[in-house]
């Protein structure tokens, strides 16, 4: 049995966008694949093609040994035969149904006792006990999201498709639920495809990530890999965060968090509780380079390093530095000349604590391995 999902589809909206997407993901382990890209890039359409809610004009979708779509031979498996859990961006809960009713919907082919058992099972799993008889408008945003998720998993799907699962929530709830969602997806042990346009969510949730722009898949890889090593300028522009490294919080005091990254201490502003394992994210434009011995800025971090690579990108120059971990900086051409930046040169990278973003990274099974 193959353990992959293989997608290769063309779908056009005349006068608008043509989606020409191809990617594969392993589904043996409960992998979370992120479809990441700007608004209008075709993410929802790709997800709907996987669900069978939208038909590609051409192409194939294979899941393990099953063929869901093969236009050449006229195969088009309807949604109900794909064993999919789909959650749309607006949750699409029935306002007149109770929480229980919403979750039960779609289980009508099961006997009453099995249906009850499944509802109780997912209610417990998503910590919704006590809300059985409430209507969606009596729930908080976070609870509504969990009901939608409960409905999507109640049928025990072999694949979960979540369209911007956190976008309907306010910002504080979103960042709290983001970590919970990752734990939950791992606990459920169902491979998932999650759409988002938020880089912090992509990092926090994904095992793999496909960068989408104008209907095309530009790069697929581990999120940290894609963010720190974008394949080309188009991907770099879309992802917009050049340095992503794993770190461990060692101290949190007075609103500042100290993180150990490969033995180097980096200071970030700590607005909220992150847990010990984090991704440390720094945009290249937020890194100021100085020559050794200057250090006269108010920035919290002054990291000594060596220039590894210098490559011009338009008016700016991208400088790759080894400061104990790989760090990218963008500077002007005149800065390159003034500071004599060339491979082997010693520099100090100054970064304000506020420009160091920490993305918590939690798994259902404990801290993620490096
Ligand atoms: P995303 O989810 O990345 O924001 P979508 O998949 O929703 O992108 O849309 C991609 C493009 O396809 C958009 O430009 C939109 O105009 C077009 N599109 C999507 N659905 C339809 C539709 N049903 N009819 C016409 N155009 C559509
Ligand atoms: Mg969308």
Structural key phrases:
OB fold (Dihydrolipoamide Acetyltransferase, E2P); 23% helix; 370 residues; single chain; 36% strand; disordered C terminus; binds adenosine-5'-diphosphate; alpha+beta; binds magnesium ion; Rossmann fold; 6-stranded mixed β-sheet
Question: Can you characterise this structure?
Answer:
- This protein is an alpha+beta fold.
- The chain has two domains: 4-233, P-loop containing nucleotide triphosphate hydrolases (Rossmann fold, 3-Layer(aba) Sandwich); 234-360, OB fold (Dihydrolipoamide Acetyltransferase, E2P) (Beta Barrel).
- It has nine helices and 21 strands.
- The strands form four sheets. A six-stranded mixed sheet has the order 7-8-9-3-10-11, with helices on both faces.
- Helix 3 packs across helix 4 (141-153).
- It is globular and about 75 Å long.
- It starts with a strand and ends in a 10-residue tail after the last strand.
- Residues 364-370 have low confidence and may be disordered.
- Residues 13, 16-17, 37, 39-45 line the site of adenosine-5'-diphosphate (ADP).
- The site of adenosine-5'-diphosphate (ADP) has 11 residues, from helix 1.
In short:
The protein is an alpha+beta fold.
């Amino acid at each position: 049995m193959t353990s992959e999902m293989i997608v290769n589809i063309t779908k056009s909206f005349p006068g608008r966008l043509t989606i020409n997407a191809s990617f594969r993901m392993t589904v043996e382990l409960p992998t979370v694949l992120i479809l990441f890209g700007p608004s209008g890039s075709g993410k929802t359409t790709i997800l709907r093609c996987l669900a069978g809610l939208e038909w590609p004009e051409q192409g194939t979708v294979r899941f393990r040994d099953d063929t869901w779509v093969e236009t050449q031979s006229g195969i088009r498996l309807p949604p109900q035969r794909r064993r999919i859990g789909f959650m749309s961006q607006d949750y699409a809960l029935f306002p007149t149904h109770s929480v229980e009713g919403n979750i039960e919907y779609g289980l009508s082919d099961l006997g009453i006792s099995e249906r009850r058992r499944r509802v109780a099972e997912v209610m417990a799993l998503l910590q919704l006990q006590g809300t059985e008889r409430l209507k969606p408008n009596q729930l908080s945003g976070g609870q509504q999201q969990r009901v939608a998720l409960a409905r999507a998993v109640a049928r025990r799907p072999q694949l979960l498709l979540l369209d911007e699962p956190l976008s309907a929530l306010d910002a504080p709830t979103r960042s709290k639920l983001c970590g919970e969602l990752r734990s939950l997806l791992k606990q459920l042990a169902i491979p998932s495809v999650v759409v988002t346009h938020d880089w912090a969510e992509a990092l926090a949730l994904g095992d793999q990530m496909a960068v989408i722009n104008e209907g095309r898949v530009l790069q697929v890889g581990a999120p940290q890999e894609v963010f720190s090593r974008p394949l080309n300028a188009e991907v770099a522009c879309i992802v917009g965060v050049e340095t992503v490294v794993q770190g461990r919080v060692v101290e949190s005091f007075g609103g500042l968090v100290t993180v150990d990254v490969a033995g180097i201490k980096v200071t970030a502003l700590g607005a909220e509780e992150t847990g010990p394992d984090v991704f440390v994210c720094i945009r290249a434009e937020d890194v100021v380079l100085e020559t050794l011995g200057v250090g006269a800025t108010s920035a919290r971090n002054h990291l000594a390093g060596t220039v590894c690579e210098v490559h011009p990108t338009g008016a700016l120059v991208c400088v790759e530095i080894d400061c104990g971990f790989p760090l990218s900086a963008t500077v002007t051409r005149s800065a390159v000349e003034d500071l004599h930046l060339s491979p082997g040169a010693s520099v100090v990278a100054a970064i304000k604590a506020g420009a160091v973003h920490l993305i918590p990274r939690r798994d259902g099974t404990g801290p993620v391995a490096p």
